[in-house]
Specification:
The structure is a homodimer of 218-residue chains.
Chain A (H helix, E strand, L loop, with lengths): L6 H24 L6 H8 L3 H7 L3 H4 L2 H16 L7 H16 L2 H16 L1 H25 L7 H25 L14 H19 L7
Helix pairs in contact in A: 1-2, 1-7, 5-6, 5-8, 6-9, 6-10, 7-8, 8-9, 9-10
Chain A binds a DNA duplex (30 and 30 nucleotides) through helix 1 and helix 3.
DNA sequence: CCATTTATGCCACTGAGTGGCATAAGCGTG
DNA sequence: CACGCTTATGCCACTCAGTGGCATAAATGG
């Protein structure tokens, strides 16, 4: 057990989290464009100026769950044992570990809301993609620092594939979660994290097959 | 030879192109954030209201060259012969053909400026990625219409790989073009389109190898 | 030449995002 | 506990992207 963090720090994290929760709730109810920052700040009783000290823009606040996951992924990458096994497997493991660390039930709910918003709001989707790419750059940097990588396009392409697989997995996961309200059991209200992990694993496994895919005309 | 398009249509295309050229020039000189829309519109002698009838936002106007290329790609996809050859090869060919159709020397210059801007301006990069993704959705739609595709993740993943390869090729092309000013010959002022095509071909060829990539610790 | 359609201009407005500066809330010291 | 010191916050005014409404001008078709 670590010693309690400074009082001030806790307050910061509390307002930060309050802003995230309020944003996901309000955006979910009235849509991203249907809520002004002034309203959001009013809700949390914080000035707009303060909002921008916590987040870079209106989009950022609603993407926090995904951001946290990727941040954990980069941390994981620093310490994961890097013997000579395939890079794809290495990255896959790191992401699954990060997911396991950061994702509890509350996270799953937030992540679902976040993804839904990024689907329905093009500016959020754009920011989301941009964030994935910048994370990917950090990923390449970490790999180059820890490993003896070839200096060509392949590591970067591999990173793009990982992101593609992740995004596709989240998409399928969120879509499946949407078909839930018909289920009578109240015990399974939200999609579980393991389900997302399984989807991601499957999607990564499908990567090689997609390269050689053929199809006949109708 | 097609009959001359209506007079009015020509005027529209002229103002549109004028806006694009002025935007690339001004943004290139003073940076994306250093130019207001009012200034840009003043330059072309057009009202801001009119600007927004041609483009969806400030970012759009500077991404026109890349947009044109992808639009041509989608057109090409509709008519390209689709026998049972690998989808990746199909898409690669369609993109190379589209590039060949749309890209002359003037295009190369504009595309270079456009890419530089998207590198230095995060909001442009975000919009660029978003546009690539939405193009990808259209791509999948076209393929499903013309071909008997499996209904799983693979076509989509393949599309993401194509985009990744394209983006990486453009990045390398633009970087190589930046190292030109030292060359004495004035006959090669701008990077040629064939060079970009070759880079794209190479990057696509590197896709399978990236999946099986391994690396040892330093 | 006239009527219809379509592009443009003008004006006022909302809302995101920023800079500057004053104030208050933690925090370490005596 | 009282004192400065640091750091977070609030408030205000401002710029600029983007939108809606309505009047005007220009092309088109007869």
């Amino acid at each position: 057990m670590t010693t309690a963090p400074p009082l001030r720090e806790r307050k910061k994290q509390r307002t930060r989290q309050a802003l995230i929760d309020a944003a996901l709730r309000l955006f979910g109810d009235r849509g991203f464009g249907g809520v002004t920052l002034d309203e959001l700040c009013e809700e949390v009783e914080v000035s707009k100026r303060t909002f921008f000290r916590y987040f870079e823009g209106k989009e950022d606040v609603a993407m926090a769950p995904l951001h946290d996951m990727w941040r954990a992924f980069l941390v994981e990458l620093e310490t994961i044992p890097a013997d000579g096994r395939p890079l794809l497997e290495l990255m896959e493991t790191a992401l699954l570990t990060a997911l396991d660390r950061v994702a509890d039930d509350a996270w799953a709910g937030r992540a679902l809301l976040s993804y839904r918003l990024s689907e329905s709001t093009s500016s959020m989707n754009a920011h989301n993609l941009h964030f994935c790419e910048s994370t990917m750059c950090s990923l390449i940097e970490v790999l180059h620092r820890r490993l003896d990588l070839p200096d060509d396009a392949r590591p970067r392409l591999l990173g793009d594939m990982l992101v593609a697989a992740w995004r596709h997995a989240v998409g399928g996961w969120a879509a499946a979660a949407g078909d839930r309200p018909a289920v009578p059991e109240p015990a399974v209200p939200e999609p579980a994290v393991p389900e997302l992990a399984a989807r991601f694993r499957d999607t990564v496994a499908a990567l090689p097959g997609s390269l050689t895919l053929t199809a006949d005309p109708r």
